[in-house]
Amino acid sequence: SEYCFGGRVLCVAEKNDAAKGIAEIMSNGRSRRREGMSKFNKIYEYEYHLFGQDVTVTMTSVSGHLLGLEFKAQYRKWHSCNPVLLFDAEVQKCCPENMKQIKRTLEKEVRQCQVLVIWTDCDREGENIGFEVIDVCKAVKHNLQVFRAKFSEITPNSIRRACETLMEPDANISDAVDVRQELDLRIGASFTRFQTLRLQKIFPESLANQLISYGSCQFPTLGFVVERFKAIQAFIPETFYKIKVLHEVEEDNVEFSWKRNRLFNHTACLVLYQICMENPIATVTSVTSKPKSKWRPLPLDTVELEKLASRKLRINAKETMKIAEKLYTQGYISYPRTETNIFPENLPLGPLVEQQTQSPIWGTFAQRVMEQPGGPNPRQGKKSDQAHPPIHPTKYSNTLQGNEGRVYEFIVRHFLACVSQDALGQETVVDIDIAQENFSSSGLMIIARNYLDVYPYDRWSAKVIPVYEQGSQFQPSAIEMVDGQTSPPQLLTEADLISLMEKHGIGTDATHADHIETIKSRMYVGLTADQRFLPGELGMGLVEGYNSMGYEMSKPNLRAELEADLKLVSEGRKDKQTVLQHHIQKYKTVFIESVRKAKKLDEALSPYLGAAQEVAEAEQQDMEFPLPVRKCPHCGQDMVLRKKREGNTKFLSCTGFPACKSAVWFPDTVLEVSRDDSICLTCLPHPVHMLKFKFRRGSLPHMMPLEFVGCIGGCDETLREVLNLKYLRAGATANKPAAAKKPRTCGICHNPGHTRVTCPQR
Ligand SMILES: *[C@@H]1O[C@H](CO)[C@@H](O)[C@H](O)[C@H]1NC(C)=O
Ligand SMILES: *[C@@H]1O[C@H](CO)[C@@H](O)[C@H](O)[C@H]1NC(C)=O
Ligand SMILES: *[C@@H]1O[C@H](CO)[C@@H](O)[C@H](O)[C@H]1NC(C)=O
Hints:
It is found in: Mitochondrion matrix. GO terms for molecular function: DNA binding; DNA topoisomerase type I (single strand cut, ATP-independent) activity; zinc ion binding. Residues 369-400 are annotated as: Disordered. The protein is α+β, with helices and mostly antiparallel strands. Helix content is 35%, strand content 20%. Strand 7 (115-119), helix 3 and strand 8 (145-148) form a beta-alpha-beta unit. The model is unreliable at 728-732 and 736-743 (pLDDT under 50). Bound molecules: 2-acetamido-2-deoxy-beta-D-glucopyranose (NAG) (3 copies). Residues 259, 436-438 line the site of one 2-acetamido-2-deoxy-beta-D-glucopyranose.
């Protein structure tokens, strides 16, 4: 073999259950179990034949992500900085406390091994978790060889195939997750801190201590709920009119419906009705009978599983995915996170159907599928993620209980339905004419129920219609003009919401359920008794507030573009850094504007939460979270503008206070000073922000304007003089408060506004 190593291979799965299942298969049930340092993640050891040699495998697991992304310590506290800085603040990957034991286990075990095989789930998150494991292991053992096992189910065939075709881990896929994590962290933290701190202050009674989170998926999801609610509120019912024809034939009461369906003009309908009533004889104009089929379902992907479980089993998406995940790690079903609804040609379906023939409940149906001409014949969809097949059972079970049992049964029945045959029927349509108005009625005869026999979640009812002959005439038993009202759309169900998220590209099939859960747990939305989403007051106000700023915060566009870029990164078609920078800039722009227009948020919320507390103007935010003006020449930390508690005196203060007492006091001739976005090109260390000044009339040399943008980094001689900026020189930590520079009354004109030097009469 081209690989030569001492014979020990470390394998790492995403969860303990998966490690256990894979070990059991690879070892034929003969693995030795021992404890790792984390009591939830066991170690399984066994012999295996890999790379043409006998090796000893150490199989263990992580518990999802091993590392988390966070800001460097100085940014972590809520009041530590202006939230806008979080778009650029340094971040790092850290191992959370509850994962440390797992990390130590890996570090210890890998020392004995020469090869690492990643067995995490084969999706984006799994690939990223794989790279976390690789980083941890390579830090201990630099020359480690690394492979990736690709599999969609924990079954003997699938695992054996994965071992025979070990690959390289795909860094591009992992990069997409890194980009998503970093953007979620920056966008989430900045907006969440900004809106929480502001709104808690403005609505102290309603929102004290409430976290008002923002997420770039959460908000559009909330937006869908609010939009539907508003459509219902804005709905004005309209009255419509229609003509209905009834015909009693022995036992049957046949209803014919009007071809015009309905009219909104009462007079117009009445006129037609009267014409019919003048000559109420019906003539049968046509009787047609044609085959009609009801299609069997498409192979099951994640979104359909979530929607159908929510609709048919009344199990919500989050719970469904939790159960499906468990069924997968226990080997009952294939990987449940998939966008594919086409069965690949190389997946033999016969054995999968065969397994189910032992069921006392659907076994007979499975047998029928085996015996149908050509065997299992899946209806095929159009989507493939090129990674996993549609969700299907991989093992028969009759022991699963409760919701686990229901979800498993659903997946089996759906699978058997989609590989069987469409239901077939014969539909008869009878058209009649009364005074040149057309009506029709139809009947359905079901010829072969086929897939419906195994799929109780779909209904198709036969409808009897008596025999009519073309050209014959009859007298209807009644012709009625009826009215009705148009009805508003209904609040969204979870299935509706998932459809909207999918349609607009919010989140991925793997995350829909989580975003929905988040907006529920934040109390942005609630559920009605019939499980429909109703926006809460906070949710309504936030969406209206951001909408009124003119931003697409609660609209799907921003996030959908990001989601599309992530896909391109994972396919290696776009570069990680470019995508990251592009979206950070985009959201930062939106953030800055949102802060500027924050009053709109207060206004939108106050109808729901009561009067807004007056907060001292826009400056308030700036003062609470001053932005850095320059680095302190003494300790290197940021210097920011602050205002003395009483009075209007401003000063430049070091954030290292009280350890560092560096400060620049502005004389009281400075009426206003604020940070300008521009940066001095000469002063060091970069960046030194320029300041915008407004001076008292008469306090400056005659030729200087009273308002200007200047640099206090030391390059501007005049400003240094005017402000008495000594702090820049070695030794001095603060300039003297400005009393020294108070302008005296002019000795020539006796005007207190200026000095002798600048007196115009001089
Ligand atoms: C309603 O229909 C009548 C009769 O066809 C017509 O005269 C009238 O203009 C219609 N009204 C409206 C509002 O369209
Ligand atoms: C009724 O049906 C006939 C035949 O299909 C058609 O020619 C006629 O236009 C229809 N009448 C109305 C009012 O729709
Ligand atoms: C990963 O992306 C780079 C470009 O960013 C590309 O050259 C490379 O082929 C990709 N790798 C894989 C395995 O797709």
